[in-house]
Amino acid sequence: MKSRVCKCSTIEVEAKHPISYRILPGRWIPDLATWPRSGVAECKQAVSHTFPTFLFRFFFLYGLRSDLLTLLILLIDSWVFTMAAAKNKYSVILPTYNERRNLPIIIWLIQRTFNQEKLDWEVIIVDDGSPDGTLEIAKQLQKLYGPEHIVLKPRQGKLGLGTAYVHGLKHTTGNFVIIMDADFSHHPKFIPEMIRIQKETDADIVTGTRYANRGDIKGGVYGWDLFRKFTSRTANLIADVMLMPGVSDLTGSFRLYKKSVLEKVILNTESKGYSFQMEMMVRAKAMGYKVSECPITFVDRVYGESKLGGSEIVDYLKGVLSLWVKV
Asked: What is the pTM (predicted TM-score) of this model?
């Protein structure tokens, strides 16, 4: 009996049986009508049959033979590969401006966190023309960790935090998007907990909160003086009373989004500055998306000075009033 060589995508199988096999990724069902007549079995993509259904029919009709076992192994291998390809990928959008000293630390922590959790990841660095050489440091980090993990999308000039997220989102390849600060205020160690909460609750958004607890995990702020704490609390109180967003930390900027949700919410967001985060959350709730909270510890930046000033506070108050009228 002649042996036939069957080419299954990139795999070759030598089967000592007058049957050739064609294996396609996806869902499987044998072409039973052609098998007895021509001696050729084809595993075709089928919308109406799943992989387990195929296995049941396969062994019920043809029994357990060594050559069919070879086919089965290939089918399982291809199915596992297809499932692995469908794993979640997390894209971190990291806006930067004068973060030369902070960037290497935060990137190292991000990659360590994702690698320890065995998650697929990438970081989109959006630098707004930092004069301190942040972009040069980012290029070195790209060489170190690889362009598949570190993606550089710089812009000319300081164009605002909101537009930085819009710009970065265009270049993400993950199905989940994480936004966070590059100044080490948001520790990547909270990312696995955010992911766990998202999976447990099937939330569209998981937002980090400094002002709520969840089980043994407590939110908090460290490194702020009394004035900064008062300003943050007051800002959240004003927004909570006027907008009733249903979250405890409306001004936080450490969040996990389903990419499809972020794309829709960001399309309806008008703010471009520091009220951007607040408007994003208010509009997400108004659009009916599910939001869960993850307690985080917010630590004041390690290097550099805070970019929050009087103009940002005025912008925030204007944003609250505008949303109160529109949403």
From this structure: 0.69
